[in-house]
Write a structure and sequence with these properties.
The complex is a heterodimer of chains A (307) and B (316).
Chain A lengths: L1 H5 L2 H7 L19 H29 L3 H4 L14 H11 L5 H32 L5 H13 L4 H12 L6 H9 L2 H11 L4 H9 L4 H9 L4 H16 L15 H9 L6 H32 L5
Chain B lengths: L1 H4 L9 H14 L1 H25 L5 E2 L8 E2 L3 H8 L2 H33 L3 H16 L4 H7 L7 H8 L16 H12 L3 H11 L3 H9 L5 H12 L1 H17 L2 H6 L12 H11 L3 H30 L1
Antiparallel strand pairs in B: 1-2
Helix pairs in contact in B: 5-9, 5-10, 5-13, 5-15, 10-13, 13-16, 15-16
The chains are: A mainly alpha (307), B mainly alpha (316).
C-alpha cells in the first residue's frame, strides 16, 4: 500500500483513466478498492462471525457428545468421541409415537413447500400491483399492510381460531397452510424492493402490448431475485417452524417441530436429545438458505436491464 | 348561470363526476385487481377480520369462557396506567430494551450487510449465513442456558473462574442485576434477522453498471460509493428494515421467556409484551391483555411515523 502511494504522480496519471471497458478487469470496475481494506473487512467479519457461530457450534458439538462428557467441568468446546446416540435416541422417542416418523416429515415438508410456493406467487403479484400500478385503493391497501405489520395482539390467534372454526378448517392441513400464505412481511419486502424498478421499463412494456401479468412475471420478477429469494427464505423458515398447536389435534396431521418439541421438553436428563432435536430442526432452513442465496449469486451476474 | 360563473367551481369535479372517474379507473385496472385478489382474500380472512374482531376486546372484560364479554369501557386502560405498578415497570424495561437493541442492531445490520457486500460471491453467502444463522436456530436457547448456567458448569462462569476474574458462580439468569443485560446480549445475537437479510437483498439489487459509471465519474473509494450510489439506491430496503426493527425491538419477549423464565426475578426482564402474555395466556384476562397490546401498538405506530419521517427526509 505504502509503495503505491510513494510512486511518482506521473506513472499514476498514466494508469488512471481506463476508458476501454475490455481493459477493466472485474475487480477494477468498482471504484478505488484497496486490497488492504478488503482484508481488514474480512478479518473484522471473521472475528465477529466467530462470536455469532459459537453458540451454534456448541449446539452441534453437544448434540454429538456422549453422555459421560456432557456434565464434566470445565465444559468442553469439542468432543473426541463423537456419537450419534442422541440422534438415535431422538428417533427412538419419536418412533414410539402412534404415527410413523415419516408421516411427520411428510407433513412438515408438504406444509413448508405449499406455504413457500403460494406465498411467493401471491405476494409477488400483489406487491407488483401495489408498488407500480396506480389504481383506486392503492394507498389504502399499502397503509393497511404496514398497520397489520405493527399490530400484534394476543387476541388475534383466538379470533383467527374462531374464523377458522367458522370456515370448518380446524384439524385440517389448510389450517396450517392458509394463514401463513398471506404474509404481510413478505409482501412489504417485495413491495419496497419493486418500488425501485423504473417506471419507464414498465411503460415501455405496456406500449409493446404486454399485459400486466406478463410484465410482472417476465420482466419485473426476474429482476427482483434478491428480494424474492429473501422472501422465500422467510416463508420457508416460518412454515418449517409451524407447530399448529391449537388448530391440529389429529396425530397424523402434526408437523415435525410439534413432535420434536414434545420429545425434547423432558428436562435435563434429555439434554442430548434437546440438542439433537435443535440440530434436526435447524438443518433444513440452513440448506434452503444456502440454496436460495446461491441462486441470487448466479442471477446477479447476468442482470442488466435497468436504468 | 351564476353557478357556472363561480370561479371556485371551474375545474372542480362534482361528486358524481368524481365517482365516475374512480369507476373508470377501476375498470381500467381490472387486471391489477385480479392479480391482487388471491393475496387479499387470504389476507382479509386471516388477518384483517381477526384484527377488526379483536379491536373492541380491549374495552371489555373477557375471560375466553363467558360469551359475550362484558363491556367495561376504558377501565382497562385506566387500571393499566394508574393501578398496575408492574406495567409501569414493564414500560421502563421495554424502553431500555428497545433503545439498546433497536438502533444498535439496525446500525449493526447495515454495517455488516455493507461489509459483506464488499467481499466476493462465495464469501458473501458464507458470511450472510453466519450472521443470519442465529435467526434460524429456533432451538438454540438451550445452548444459551448452558452458557449462562448459574452453576460452575456454565460456560460463562467456568471461563470467568478459570481466568480468575470471579471466584464463585454468578447467577446470570436469576440475579435481577444481570438478567436484562443477558437478555439484551442474546437479543442482539439473534437480531441479524429480517432487516439484515432485506438490507443484503437491497445491496444486491443495485445495478453494477451504476458502480461502473460512478468509478468513471470520479468516485474514489468504498465510502463515497456507499454515500453517493448505494444508500440513495436502497431507501425502500432501509425503510423495510426499520419497520422490522421497530417490531422486533418492541415486541421481543420470546428470548426473555425462554432464557430467564417467566416471570423473571423481580420482573427484571418483564417487557410490555411479556405482560400481555401474562394476562392473555396465563390469567386468561383477554380484555386486559388486549388493552396492553393496544397501548403497545400505538407506541409502535408513533415510532414508525417518526422514523419514516426521518428516513424519508434523508432519502430526498
Amino acid at each position: 500500500m505504502s509503495k503505491a502511494e510513494t510512486k511518482p504522480a506521473k506513472i499514476r496519471k498514466k494508469k488512471k483513466p481506463v476508458t476501454d471497458p475490455k481493459k477493466l478487469k472485474a475487480s477494477n470496475r468498482r471504484a478505488g478498492r484497496k486490497i488492504g481494506g478488503t482484508v481488514a473487512i474480512f478479518l473484522f467479519l471473521t472475528v465477529l462471525g466467530l462470536f455469532m457461530v459459537l453458540p451454534i457450534w456448541l449446539m452441534v458439538v453437544n448434540s454429538i457428545k456422549p453422555v459421560n462428557e456432557m456434565f464434566i467441568f470445565p465444559p468442553k468446546w469439542y468432543t473426541l468421541n463423537p456419537t450419534f446416540d442422541n440422534f438415535r435416541d431422538t428417533y427412538r422417542v419419536l418412533g414410539q409415537m402412534w404415527v410413523p416418523f415419516s408421516r411427520y416429515v411428510f407433513n412438515s415438508a408438504f406444509v413448508t413447500i405449499a406455504v413457500t410456493v403460494l406465498q411467493c406467487v401471491f405476494a409477488s403479484m400483489a406487491a407488483f400491483c401495489l408498488a407500480k400500478i396506480k389504481f383506486p385503493g392503492n394507498k389504502l391497501i399499502n397503509g393497511i399492510i404496514v398497520l397489520a405489520l405493527l399490530y400484534n395482539s394476543n387476541v388475534i390467534y383466538l379470533m383467527q381460531y374462531m374464523v377458522m372454526a367458522e370456515l370448518n378448517m380446524i384439524n385440517r392441513m389448510s389450517a396450517l397452510i392458509l394463514p401463513s400464505v398471506a404474509s404481510t412481511m413478505g409482501l412489504f419486502l417485495m413491495r419496497q424492493s419493486m418500488s425501485t424498478v423504473p417506471d419507464a421499463m414498465i411503460e415501455a412494456a405496456k406500449v409493446d402490448g404486454a399485459s400486466l401479468f406478463t410484465i410482472c412475471w417476465k420482466i419485473v420478477i426476474p429482476n427482483q431475485k434478491p428480494a424474492l429469494m429473501t422472501m422465500a427464505i422467510f416463508a420457508f423458515q416460518g412454515a418449517w417452524n409451524i407447530t399448529g398447536g391449537s388448530v391440529i389435534y389429529d396425530e397424523s396431521l402434526k408437523t415435525l417441530p410439534t413432535v420434536i418439541q414434545q420429545a425434547a421438553s423432558a428436562g435435563i436428563s434429555r439434554q442430548g436429545v434437546t440438542m439433537a432435536a435443535a440440530v434436526i430442526l435447524f438443518l433444513p432452513p440452513v440448506l434452503f438458505f444456502i440454496m436460495a442465496q446461491s441462486q441470487v449469486m448466479e442471477t446477479m451476474a447476468h442482470s442488466g436491464i435497468k436504468d | 348561470m351564476d353557478k357556472i360563473l363561480d370561479k371556485d367551481q371551474i375545474g372542480v369535479r362534482t361528486k358524481k363526476e368524481r365517482r365516475q372517474l374512480v369507476w373508470r379507473q377501476m375498470k381500467q385496472n381490472k387486471e391489477a385487481y385480479l392479480m391482487l385478489l388471491p393475496f387479499m382474500v387470504i389476507f382479509i380472512i386471516f388477518t384483517v377480520i381477526p384484527v377488526i374482531m379483536s379491536l373492541p376486546i380491549g374495552l371489555t372484560d373477557f375471560d375466553m369462557v363467558q360469551y359475550p364479554p362484558t363491556w367495561v369501557g376504558l377501565s382497562n386502560f385506566y387500571n393499566l396506567f394508574l393501578n398496575d405498578s408492574i406495567f409501569i415497570k414493564a414500560i421502563r424495561v421495554t424502553l431500555v430494551f428497545a433503545v439498546f437493541t433497536g438502533p444498535l442492531s439496525y446500525l449493526l445490520s447495515f454495517l455488516l450487510a455493507w461489509l459483506i457486500n464488499e467481499l466476493n460471491q462465495t464469501l458473501k453467502v458464507i458470511f450472510t449465513l453466519i450472521f443470519y444463522a442465529p435467526s434460524m436456530a429456533s432451538g438454540v436457547y438451550a445452548v444459551w442456558q448452558l452458557i449462562f448456567s448459574g452453576d460452575s458448569y456454565g460456560i460463562a462462569n467456568s471461563t470467568l473462574m478459570n481466568l480468575g476474574v470471579s471466584t464463585s458462580a454468578i447467577q446470570w439468569l436469576t440475579d435481577s442485576k444481570y438478567i436484562l443485560t443477558v437478555v439484551i446480549i442474546v437479543q442482539l445475537w439473534v437480531s441479524m434477522g429480517a432487516g439484515f437479510l432485506a438490507m443484503r437483498a437491497g445491496f444486491q439489487n443495485i445495478d453494477k453498471s451504476q458502480y461502473e459509471a460512478g468509478a468513471i465519474e470520479g468516485i474514489k473509494n468504498r465510502w463515497q460509493e456507499l454515500i453517493y450510489i448505494t444508500i440513495p439506491g436502497m431507501g425502500p430496503s432501509l425503510m423495510f428494515a426499520a419497520v422490522m426493527q421497530i417490531v422486533s425491538a418492541f415486541t421481543a419477549d420470546i428470548v426473555a421467556r425462554n432464557l430467564v423464565g417467566f416471570p423473571s426475578t423481580d420482573y427484571a426482564a418483564h417487557t410490555i409484551m411479556t405482560h400481555a402474555f401474562d394476562y392473555g395466556w396465563v390469567r386468561y384476562e383477554m380484555g386486559y391483555a388486549s388493552a396492553i397490546c393496544m397501548v403497545l401498538f400505538i407506541a409502535m405506530y408513533i415510532c414508525n411515523k417518526l422514523i419514516s419521517k426521518i428516513l424519508g427526509k434523508y432519502m430526498e
